[in-house]
Design goal:
Blueprint lengths: L1 E5 L5 E4 L5 H7 L18 E5 L2 E2 L7 H5 L3 E2 L5 E2 L3 E4 L2
Parallel strand pairs: 1-7
Antiparallel strand pairs: 1-2, 3-5, 3-7, 4-6
The structure holds FE2/S2 (inorganic) cluster.
The site of FE2/S2 (inorganic) cluster has 14 residues, from loops.
Amino acid sequence: PFEVKLASSGKCYTIPAGVTVLKVLNDAGVFVPASCEQGVCGTCLTRVLDGVPDHRDLYLTEEEQAANDQFTPCCSRSRSATLLLDL
Ligand code: FES
């Protein structure tokens, strides 16, 4: 498990194994636009302000993934204990 923190509200959400960031946020009433939910379309792309995403998408280039400043919450996870998101 890891946590995501939202920059706007300062709220933290725990992401359990097997549950996507997208689902946890949607269930909490935080709307993130999404479409494919498979890491292909890029609709859910979200800016990362701090932390290191564990990229599982097929949308970003290797260079974009390595920059650690955006990720796809429909499928990607975190290598750090917390991801600070620009939401
Ligand atoms: Fe398509 Fe996340 S919804 S990449």
